Amino acid sequence: MPAFSIITRPMISIYDQQGLEALRSRTAVQPHRFKLFRNAFFKKGLGKEGALAVLPGAARSVFGREVGFQCLELSGRRDSETDGATKLGFQTLDGHLIESVILRVKTGRTALCISSQVGCVCKCGFCATGQLGFSRNLTYGEILDQVAQANRLLRAEGRTVRNVVLMGMGEPFQNLENVFQSLEVLQDATCFNLAGMRLMVSTVGIPDAMVQCAERFPCVQLALSLHSARQQVREKLMPLARKYNLDALHEAMAVIGRSRKVMVEYLMLEGVNDGDEDFQALENYLRDIPVHINIIPFNEFEGCGLKGTPHLARKAFADRLKDAGFNVTLRYSLGSDIAAACGQLVRRRMREGFA
Ligand code: SF4
Hints:
The chain is an alpha/beta fold. The chain is 36% helix and 20% strand. It has two domains: 12-68, no CATH class; 72-352, Aldolase class I (TIM Barrel, Alpha-Beta Barrel).
């Protein structure tokens, strides 16, 4: 496990907008200089040295001394040999492991999947993170630092993070305030400046929080991990479904659907949710809601006891949905050779370590 000598506890986090503004005022940095400083750090991915370089000499040393420029340490990476995925492992100041995944999509776009919690309390049967247990929520600085550090790595490739998806470790709506604060900073024109439509929050389905998010962030996309429109099947796959049942979720989706489409994620599991009865239930459940359905392959992992539906059967299921009038995308898997699915790398790393 790497030593933590290069990071000291920050007095003011680079992600603390009020604290930074107070420091700017105290050091009499002109607003246009401060803008260049933030631009260098957040948009250009120049890191600490690059951002400090645009400040006047006296302020440079104060900022260098009093601002904490990172709250995670990059502790490892795995690059896929078969596609454009890179899994990043980070360590928090208190020694927890989390992970993010860079996805270099064929269109040239670069997306980043980030974590919102250390582990997860939800224990979904198809998810490696669910088997790790829950340690704590990530702070908004730790959520944002995944984006800033990925941008710094991508700079060498002439790329920048264009889309951010909260679909890594954790259920984002169990860490509502930190996630909302992160969304504010990601959209802030003086910080990451990412349009809301480039951001997505993925949830296993907490109806009140979904509606709250849709109201506060009208442009941010919402993805619901539905995976079954049969209550019993859903409860078996996702214990949280006992608390938030399909009727409650349907009501929330109907409210959100008045102003936008809801992304519906459907992970296809052989013999679990890919039969005729499953298709009929899904069609009936989503019939009156504007949705886009993503049919997703399953990244199997040791001990999960589940198998993914073969490609041809997934395609047939997707085609039936299209014929029924739905917008459907048949997703392919990125990074299966680097254990890119949620929680798999941390699980593997806990067992065998990685460099
Ligand atoms: S799928 Fe998401 S909500 Fe479910 S256990 Fe994994 S991280 Fe948690």
